[in-house]
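Forgive a beginner's question, but would it be possible to get any protein sequence you like and the tokens describing how it folds?
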Amino acid sequence: MEDLSLHILDIVENATSAGATLVCISVEEDAERDILEITVRDNGSGMDAKALNGVRDPFFTSRTTRRVGLGIPLFEAAAREAGGHLWVYSQPGRGTKVKATFEAGHIDRKPLGDMGATLVSLIMGNPEVDFVYESNLKGETTSVDTRSIKKEIKGVTTITDPAVLKLVRDVVNNPEP
């Protein structure tokens, strides 16, 4: 995958496939420690111990449509290539948390990518799921919560309206200092 936003897209798609109705994405950069941290948390079905132990194996998947599951292994490889780590926490019925760290200035760290387009794609493909996106990158913060947006637009339009999606993309891609 060319950038980290595509890894996030893949992890979130796994969450929605696992029945998540709320997915929280956090992207934070700590310049003092030279760390970029990405966390994806969901309230999906979670994984039992067997699935959690196999999640890093590219030939393990719970899907029936294919026999490989490359999302977590590729995300972990991206983290390790950039001097970081990946952790997966999960409990059946309680959801999953995937956390990856990267040396922010590492020469092999992939670019973050277009998080606005990633979030818009997730909303379009899963309008029934709520997403919370928060970032703090170089002192610029962004926060998008589709629950709040849905409340504001109720009775007027839908979360997948092109004007709403453009606003979401603009807010994510143009954070405020």
DSSP finds six helices and six strands in the chain. The CA atoms of residues 51 and 69 lie 11 Å apart. The first strand starts at residue 22 and ends at 30. Confidence is low (pLDDT under 50) at residues 63-68.
